[in-house]
Amino acid sequence: MKPKVIVVMPAYNAARTLRMTYEQLPKEYLHSVILVDDGSTDDTIEIARRLNLEVFIHTRNFGYGANQKTCYAEALKAGADIVVMVHPDYQYDPTLLPEIIQPILDGKADLVLGSRLQKGSALKQGMPWWKFYANRFLTWVENVCFGLNHSEYHTGYRAFSRPLLEAVNFGMNSDGFIFDQEIVAQTVACRFRIDEIAVPVRYFKEASSISLFNSTIYGLKILWLLGKYMLHKTGIHRTRQFESLHLRYTTAANAAGASSRA
Questions:
Q1: Cβ neighbours of residue 245 under 8 Å, at least 6 residues apart?
Q2: What CATH architecture does domain 5-261 belong to?
Q3: How far apart are CA 105 and CA 98, in angstroms?
Q4: Residues 6+ apart with CB under 8 A from 46
Q5: Nearest 10 degrees: CA dihedral of 14, 19, 25, 29?
Q6: Which residues fall within 8 angstroms of residue 21, CB to CB, at 6 or more apart?
Q7: What is the DSSP string of 117-135?
Q8: What spatial distance separates the first Cα and last Cα of the chain, rounded to whole Å?
Q9: For 32, which DSSP code?
Q10: Contact call for residues 12 and 37 (beta carbons, < 8 A)
């Protein structure tokens, strides 16, 4: 039986790039596309409806992480086996959808990251130098903490298996940009597998990008997150954010069964 692949698009003022992003998605691999609008003030919603996307609307701008929470919750409700996040700003290549889902289809991964740094030069593709070197440094720290060896964790092009999204407690994560790294840390903590593919990246006026100041705050939040993760990993301070929901439900069920038998 063919797996149900659903693309989710976390959108905010994506009217200028939404159509060309959607039109380049390989439709033969897709079941449907869900767009969650996070309080856009342009024509994003109207264009999404003209394209016959499934549209969910936030009444105001709740944040990038909050948008993803709605994306994944609605995709799971729709019965997705694989969920692919594609930014509607056309920064990442939509035509690579078959490549990013293949490691999941092959049973080799539960999360696949589209890495801008695995091949070629992201600097030549337009990535600001300060973002490039910050990305390199933070990825190195994350590899040390996670015990992995990936080229990038800070990409917005990602594919998730259903079991992963059902197990990790993404509802506890931030409503801001740090959500991206929280769900990676949860993936590692719950012992799911991560793979990556090389993707080119485009930097232009309409593409989403955070400022140097906000990037600095983002980097500091990542270091704080990694500190919490290491405390959890070593058992010094356990937190529900990094625990598998399946484990919690099983533990609760076992406790209830023991109580009933008593």
A1: 166, 167, 168, 169
A2: Alpha-Beta Complex (3.90)
A3: 10
A4: 15
A5: 100
A6: 9, 14, 86, 87, 88, 89, 90, 94
A7: SSSS-TTTTT--HHHHHHH
A8: 44
A9: E
A10: yes
- Map out the domains of the chain as residue ranges: 5-261
Give the relative orientation of helices 179-189 and 129-146 as an angle to the nearest 10 degrees: 20
Asked if 160 contacts 245 with a C-beta cutoff of 8 angstroms, the reply is: no
* Both structure tokens of 63: 């944040």
Q: Which residues of the chain have pLDDT under 70?
A: 120-126, 129, 203-211, 247-262
Residue-wise pLDDT tens digits, 20-46: 999 999 999 999 999 999 999 999 999
* 168 in Cβ contact with 244 (< 8 Å): yes
